[in-house]
Write the structure tokens for this entry.
Amino acid sequence: MIWNPWHGCKKISAGCMNCYMYRRDAQFGKDSSVVEKTSSFRLPLQRRRDGSYKLTDDVVYACMTSDFFIDEADEWRRDAWRMIKERSDTEFYIITKRIHRFEVSLPDDWGDGYDNVTICSTCEDQRAADERLPVFLSLPIKHREIIHEPMLSDIHEEQYLSTGLVDRVICGGESGDEGRKCRYSWVLSVREQCMRCGVPFCFKQTGTHFEKDGRVYTIERRYQHSQAKRAGIDT
């Protein structure tokens, strides 16, 4: 597994990051159980000859092919935080299923959070939501998003959304031939909860196996985002 904090690609979704990670590692003969830091670790601070930054993305999705809070990266994370603070001109999205490890190696000057950092907690089903969201909402974070991707069950979370601490909720299915089914009714249910609580909602992708009105559709990866957008249910 490559621990790459500075993944600027906006085409890889949170829901498929684990299967993507293993597929990519397998292509290059890598053992995904071994965690390595990439050679581009200091990219955010690297400059060209004219003094401009080499990393110019307005938005950077951190560790999209691993997890920012994995145990093996504890020794590197403080340096990553320092670079994130220095690059206040760039917005960093950190998506994790390990929200319980958020405060490990947290910088001393974090306070209630950096303005340019959004922390996103993934919750694939009701059990994950009830385990992770109370922790998520108790932490010192300025910008929070909930990501149900892959969405694997109906999720009732209005008690968490009503706190006013969630900036947005994103739903999406699971990609890949072996992807588990996502039901449109689950997506609509979360959307309704968001609307009642005044929380912005985004339906990001259908996933490969998508059920709507009792019928299961198999959707090619290249159409999964566009089909979700065609639903027209983002708020």
About this structure: The longest helix spans residues 184-197. The two ends are 35 Å apart (CA to CA). Helices lie at 17-27, 74-86, 126-138, 158-161, 184-197, 221-230. The chain has a mean pLDDT of 89.
